[in-house]
Amino acid sequence: MDDRPLPRPGEDLEDQGLGFDLGTLGRRRALRVLGLGAVALGVAACGGPPAPAATSPGEIPEETAGPFPGDGSNGVNVLAQSGVVRSDIRPSFGGPTGVAEGVPMTLELTVADLARGGEPYAGAAVYVWHCDRAGGYSLYSPGVEGENYLRGVQIADAAGRVRFTSIVPACYAGRWPHVHLEVYPDPASITDAARAVATSQVALPEDTCRQVYAQPGYERSVANLGDVTLAGDTVFGDDGGASQLATVTGDVTTGYTVALPVRVDPATAPGSGGPPR
């Protein structure tokens, strides 16, 4: 169970209301519980694949924000802090002084608005966050609760592009290496997680990860990567990360550029993906 405040503190968990239930179950599980996914349940009962989230054709899949979003939906809201709009997300800001170390990574996301025929989503605010090279998430993980590094927002330019300077994240137990992202319609919306028009994740290619994890500081990631596959990942496994697998150029010496097109449809109902992971 997460540490969200209860809307009805004096009552049992099952009596906290629909909004709380949806946040707990996640969008896909909630659809099943509410009966909206009855057809999907019938297929699943026969051993078939689960129904996909309700997205437009070509839209990046809606995924879980996980238990460490830092967007106000599960504890602290880093998006309400001055200085969160920045390109270099390696250092903490606003007081904390920690700096995340690791193999350099430039993350380039190009956001397209499917409701407008796929034109660049200029002016959209994109929030990204990911773990450090030890697998910890700032604001939440033991030892880095007081830091807020590896979190930041960029505003999409006329081409719909945002660019972040960061480090290659670790592979922690049970998950394929990834970067979280949320897309908001404009900068004024970022303090309210409910206004995100898309929540998803970027998958990193295996060959890049193996090169990086051979470097000092990433020792724990070697065994963890050996225990997971992209196809079997709890998030990307639905389609093997087909529309979330980044293209990568560079090397461990000069750093890597990780790029992914992010196609969103603000007209579709956003969700929180699956259960936190």
Explain what this protein looks like in three dimensions.
The chain is an alpha+beta fold and 277 residues long. The chain folds into two domains: 1-51, no CATH class; 55-264, Aromatic compound dioxygenase (Protocatechuate 3,4-Dioxygenase, subunit A), CATH 2.60.130. The chain has five helices and nine strands. It has helices spanning 18-25, 27-33, 38-45, 206-213, 219-226, and strands at residues 104-113, 119-120, 125-129, 151-155, 161-167, 178-184, 198-203, 247-251, 255-264. Strands 1, 2, 5, 8 and 9 form a five-stranded mixed sheet that branches. A hairpin with a 5-residue loop joins strand 1 and strand 2 (119-120). Helix 1 packs across helix 2. It is globular and about 45 Å long. Mean pLDDT is 83; it is low at 1-54 and 272-277.
Write the layout of secondary structure elements.
Elements: H1 18-25, H2 27-33, H3 38-45, E1 104-113, E2 119-120, E3 125-129, E4 151-155, E5 161-167, E6 178-184, E7 198-203, H4 206-213, H5 219-226, E8 247-251, E9 255-264
Helix pairs in contact: 1-2
Organism: Actinomycetospora rhizophila
GO molecular function, one term: dioxygenase activity
Keywords: Dioxygenase, Oxidoreductase
